[in-house]
């Protein structure tokens, strides 16, 4: 199910805290950084905070710049992004600034919480959406995408919300403003709480930008650890997009597909990448990538192969098709964008061959058009 692009945004102290324990909100950003945040808000379709942040900060979550609001309107968008909160209990204060400022609002809550929230917010025009007995984040993101048309979601905290989205592999990007102060209080709210994160403690996110903004440093990261089993993660989308980009590198052919592939370890380390006809005129992408990894590499059994096209199931020109090469390498997870059409081989079912031998195969159709793009001449 498609989700919006999920951007986690926070300002954090040198000791990893989002706030202090005092009654007033701690301002970690300075004026220049609050202006940067305003710009990120203006670029978003929706802004989400948890009910804990509503209670602690009583935020408005507006686009404060009149020019940015005007630019949104000129582009056919509402002046303000949709405001979103999540609550398990539904215990929400109807007098909070959140409800009386800005544009449309939606609350995602549990079946039980929906009764309390609907009563508390009666008459305020707020959409209260129950997502089941618990707060299922995938259901929240799917609803935002499919029903509210949200393509870019900015999440402004707090710690409990950021922690869950990162732990569940649902964050596409992190934007952290590191503030030059130390909170030092053991009970001050942390940016990321305890628990298991994708890829474990050895997983390194990819740094995509650093920039001083006044006296804070903006750091932007993207996740790298593949999902597990049949469940796709935000990092799976990123790696598959790379595989689709690699397909454009292939020497063109009228008699074979152009495909890209990447092999990634469970801790997010890229083991190899390849593309069709990279090393010889018959090489397939998965074959080219796997050939660069030492057979028996201990990281292979937990690795994921990303391939823009479903791995092949039959080959005349080689002893083994790519689905077999993947299984023989010990890999048990494959993410692909496009099922093989009957162009060269009728009813090829590489995904079926992989699944029959216990591999998890994840198809992400959102990337199908990118996978097909370098193969248009074969239509
Ligand atoms: N420096 C910064 O950039 C920012 C700092 N902050 C700070 O963070 C602190 C607030 O963080 P925190 O207390 O973690 O609150 P959050 O904003 O993360 O909200 C937590 C609340 O969201 C609901 N919720 C979230 N996940 C679930 C779930 N899986 N099931 C049920 N309910 C869920 C619950 O609401 P309910 O209780 O209604 O059931 C829960 O109490 C404040 O001190 C604030 O100032 C916040 C944002 C940014
Ligand atoms: N303290 C803090 C942030 N806090 C975030 O800003 C929200 C309040 O925004 P507003 O309604 O516009 O005042 C608050 O609820 C929380 O999500 N953000 C940051 O970038 N830097 C900061 O130092």
From TrEMBL:
Top-level taxon in the UniProt lineage: Bacteria
Report any one BP term from Gene Ontology.
riboflavin biosynthetic process
Is Transcription among this UniProt entry's keywords?
A: no
The record ties this protein, via InterPro entries, to: CMP_dCMP_dom (IPR002125), Cytidine_deaminase-like (IPR016193), DHFR-like_dom_sf (IPR024072), RibDG_C (IPR002734), Riboflavin_Biosynth_HTPR (IPR050765)
Q: Per the database record, which ranges form the CMP/dCMP-type deaminase domain?
A: 234-347
**Which UniProt keywords are listed?**
NADP, Oxidoreductase
A Pfam family annotated for this chain is RibD_C
Q: Reaction catalysed?
A: 5-amino-6-(5-phospho-D-ribitylamino)uracil + NADP(+) = 5-amino-6-(5-phospho-D-ribosylamino)uracil + NADPH + H(+); 2,5-diamino-6-hydroxy-4-(5-phosphoribosylamino)-pyrimidine + H2O + H(+) = 5-amino-6-(5-phospho-D-ribosylamino)uracil + NH4(+)
Q: Which region is the signal sequence?
A: none
Q: E.C. number, please? A: 3.5.4.26
Molecular-function GO term, any one: 5-amino-6-(5-phosphoribosylamino)uracil reductase activity
Pathway linked to the protein: Cofactor biosynthesis; riboflavin biosynthesis; 5-amino-6-(D-ribitylamino)uracil from GTP: step 2/4
Give the main EC class. hydrolase
Instruction: Please report which protein family the annotation says this sequence is part of.
Output: In the C-terminal section; belongs to the HTP reductase family.
State what this protein does: Converts 2,5-diamino-6-(ribosylamino)-4(3h)-pyrimidinone 5'-phosphate into 5-amino-6-(ribosylamino)-2,4(1h,3h)-pyrimidinedione 5'-phosphate.
What protein name applies here? Riboflavin biosynthesis protein RibD
Q: What is the lineage of its organism?
A: Bacteria, Bacillati, Actinomycetota, Actinomycetes, Kitasatosporales
